[in-house]
Amino acid sequence: MAFLKRLLLGEQGLLVIFVIAFAAVSIFVPSFLTERNMLGLFQSVVTIGIVACTMMFCLASRDFDLSVGSIVAFTGMVAVMASNASGSIVVGLIAALACGTFVGFVNGTIIAKLKINALITTLATMQIVRGLALISSDGRAVGINDPGFYQLALSRFLGIPTPIWIMLILFCVFGFVLNRSVFGRNTLAIGGNPEASRLAGVNVDGMRIWIFTIQGLVCAVAGILLASRITSGQPNAATGLELSAISACVLGGVSLAGGRAAMTGVIVGVLILGIAENAMNLLNIQAFYQYLVRGLILLLAVLLDNVRSTGLGRK
């Protein structure tokens, strides 16, 4: 029993669970370990992985962001439509990054300055931004005029697709920010005790605005890459992404109560979700059952967070 408790509470335990799951899938699922499938697996988790990098900071500071899926879809639409209208891919990318950053800034300002709960704020912006994506496209997919836009997703470096490199770079950058910067330490401090952090001189409101602004910017990066990969701007893209990103973070040991996070855990959480979906696709399991499995994984993530928080004396 003590061993099981240590397994659930420690980062090493999560790694053991991942290794067991990976080994089991490798043995029982045909074609899983092929080079083509491995690259496909990593490409399939790019969007979740990129968004989870900054969702980790939101959760660690005791906040949520339910608008990430809508921002990804909206910024993907903006990138395609602005590129088509201007004839310049660069203009489209800048427009998408600016829109994502602005939505994140609005989220953070409302939460920090107007003191409206993050859950309610981002639930509202989720609907608003998704509505803007649908209105701007009349509810239809928008095709890409310039084939060069496809190269954002199709290009490779050392045989590995560029989006995977971008995800890995963001993992490294935000892992460094979390563990080695004042910004990361302040984020964890706010999640642990916002009032004590304020009394210690931390600008809690400013930190929240920065966290959500960066979240919006990173969602725009994910939206651009997703639009390039699916070769169009899709107003209904990334539906449910927010729950997948939260699941990956919580599976990886990020506390829903705030104050605890680790990038290595988030990476493992992202890979666990990716392996589960990849295995179901290879086994030709119907999408209806995949929804069931995703829901069970989310429930498992919350249960693990509850066990960790209880074991660490936080509840």
From TrEMBL:
PANTHER family: ABC TRANSPORTER PERMEASE PROTEIN YPHD-RELATED-RELATED, L-ARABINOSE TRANSPORT SYSTEM PERMEASE PROTEIN ARAH. It is an enzyme of class 3 (hydrolase). Keywords: Cell membrane, Hydrolase, Membrane, Transmembrane, Transmembrane helix. Its EC number is 3.6.3.17. This is L-arabinose ABC transporter permease AraH. Its main location: membrane. GO terms for molecular function: hydrolase activity; transmembrane transporter activity. GO terms for cellular component: plasma membrane. The chain crosses the membrane at residues 12-33, 39-59, 66-83, 89-112, 157-178, 209-227, 248-276, 288-307. The lineage of its organism: Bacteria, Pseudomonadati, Pseudomonadota, Alphaproteobacteria, Hyphomicrobiales. CDD domains: TM_PBP1_transp_AraH_like. Pfam families: BPD_transp_2 (PF02653). It is a multi-pass membrane protein. It is found in: Cell membrane.
